[in-house]
Specification:
Low-confidence stretches: none
Number of helices: 9
Shape: globular
Order of helices and strands: EHEHEHEHEHEHEHEHH
Oligomer: single chain
Distance between the termini: 11 Å
Largest sheet: 8 strands, parallel
Number of strands: 8
Radius of gyration: 17 Å
Helix content: 40-55%
Strand content: 15-25%
């Protein structure tokens, strides 16, 4: 299995990172993407990825947009020069109007910069969107070319209509994590069923959002198997099919070798 969205470089794992990664391997997780959320965090993601044979993304989360470097392309280029193919995408980038930790206009500007950077460098994107759907769609229509670019709407928890729009208009994949297992997530299960397996990838977003039966604990990549089992039940297919198809989707978007 491929866990397409983690933060295993987070300090929450500093005391037991090796043991956590061993548990992931024993659970069948053979590829982990660790996701950067600001410039320093992206550096840390890359360093941990290099040390532990993972892959990483580099990005400015909307919460951190207010502190983005003035020359973001140069900062990203420097990381790519240092870590090379270890970096597989731009993100986590997007819009978050729930907390407004950064002004909305600044979030939109930093998202636009990252969209342009990814387009010019031929890199896929990892998106975060919360309570900003209309502005997020407008940003995609202005700066994302679905014919030539690839991307994932991470931690998708939206409606069937939103799922169909992201998949149908933009060709994006939806990152499905532990929320799928929650009793309150019937709307998400319906959205997943509507778009089908070829539009989905698996993720944990660890250390956050642990699935049932681990809810309330620190999440980790080994737990992606619980989400995979729930997804198999929702779609009425066997677990092996879920793993094979979501892994193929992940390899396609990130350019990962088998």
């Amino acid at each position: 299995m491929i866990d397409t969205h983690t933060h295993v470089h987070d300090r929450a794992f500093d005391e037991d990172r090796d043991a956590m990664l061993a548990r992931a391997h024993n659970a069948g997780v053979d590829r982990i993407v660790t996701v950067g959320c600001d410039l320093d965090d992206s550096r840390r993601a890359c360093a941990v990825a290099e040390a532990d044979d993972l892959v990483a993304t580099i990005g400015i989360h909307p919460h951190e947009a207010k502190d983005a470097p003035a020359d973001l392309p140069a900062a990203f280029d420097a990381l790519r020069e240092r870590y090379g193919e270890r970096i597989v995408a731009v993100g986590e980038t997007g819009l978050d109007y729930h907390y407004d930790h950064s002004p909305r206009a600044v979030q939109r500007a930093v998202l636009a910069t990252q969209l342009a950077y990814a387009r010019e460098r031929g890199l896929p994107l990892v998106f975060h969107q919360r309570e900003a759907h209309d502005d997020f769609v407008a940003a995609l229509r202005a700066g994302f070319d679905g014919a030539t670019q690839r991307g994932i709407v991470h931690c998708f928890t939206g409606t069937t209509e939103q799922a169909q729009l992201f998949v149908g208009e933009f060709g994006l994949l939806l990152g499905i994590g532990g929320v799928l297992t929650f009793k309150t997530a019937q709307g998400l299960r319906e959205a997943v069923a509507a778009v089908g397996l070829d539009a989905l990838v698996l993720e944990t977003d660890c250390p956050y959002l642990a699935p049932v039966p681990y809810r309330g604990q620190r999440n980790e990549p080994a737990y992606v198997a619980a989400t995979a089992r729930t997804l198999a039940e929702v779609l009425g297919v066997d677990l092996a099919t879920v793993v094979a198809r979501t892994d193929a989707n992940a390899r396609g978007v990130f350019g990962l070798r088998v």
